[in-house]
Amino acid sequence: MYYGNIKKTDIANGTGVRVSLFVSGCRRHCKDCFNSETWDFCYGNEFTDDTMNEIITAMDKEYIKGFSLLGGEPFEKENRMAVQYILKTIKEHFPNKTVWCYSGFAFEELVGECEDILKYIDVLVDGAFVAEKKNLKLKFRGSENQRIINVKKSLEDKTVTELTEGEYDEY
């Protein structure tokens, strides 16, 4: 798997200060995507053990609240094995830090096929970016069709549980 960027102090893609990884590869090609360079599966650098160690080191600070995974598309078939390894490793090292993930796939599309990845995610921002529904006033998402989902509760209850703005800070 390739990645486009690692942000070691990100405050835009989840609550608090986070470490964010932008994976490469996306077939959705959303109109006006803010990160279209990552559509190419070979964009950026190859993800290696050194990359994983860089993320672990960056996260090993008290002020880092968690990890955010973006793209590209983390749930593209080509990325799934690496993404599962990354999230599992992060949760093993930092069980009390939260994981946010952004995906163009709807939660319902991922259940069943990707629960081995979803189980490591606390919050999923799902749904493709829709330029016609863009709203700059939204927190942590770009368009009104996107949802901010409590993954653990949604998996347990077998129905989507969206987080309200007042609940974000818990994650």
TrEMBL record:
Name the record gives this protein: Anaerobic ribonucleoside-triphosphate reductase-activating protein
Cofactor needs: [4Fe-4S] cluster
Reaction catalysed by this enzyme: glycyl-[protein] + reduced [flavodoxin] + S-adenosyl-L-methionine = glycin-2-yl radical-[protein] + semiquinone [flavodoxin] + 5'-deoxyadenosine + L-methionine + H(+)
Task performed by this protein: Activation of anaerobic ribonucleoside-triphosphate reductase under anaerobic conditions by generation of an organic free radical, using S-adenosylmethionine and reduced flavodoxin as cosubstrates to produce 5'-deoxy-adenosine.
Family recorded in the similarity comment: Belongs to the organic radical-activating enzymes family.
Family matches, as InterPro entries: Aldolase_TIM (IPR013785), NrdG (IPR012837), Organic_radical-activating (IPR034457), Radical_activat_CS (IPR001989), rSAM (IPR007197), rSAM_sf (IPR058240)
Protein species of origin: Hominilimicola fabiformis
The EC number(s) this enzyme carries: 1.97.1.-
Keywords annotated in UniProt: 4Fe-4S, Iron, Iron-sulfur, Metal-binding, Oxidoreductase, S-adenosyl-L-methionine
GO molecular function annotation: 4 iron, 4 sulfur cluster binding; [formate-C-acetyltransferase]-activating enzyme activity; metal ion binding; ribonucleoside-diphosphate reductase activity, thioredoxin disulfide as acceptor
Highest rank taxon of the organism: Bacteria
PROSITE patterns in UniProt: RADICAL_ACTIVATING (PS01087)
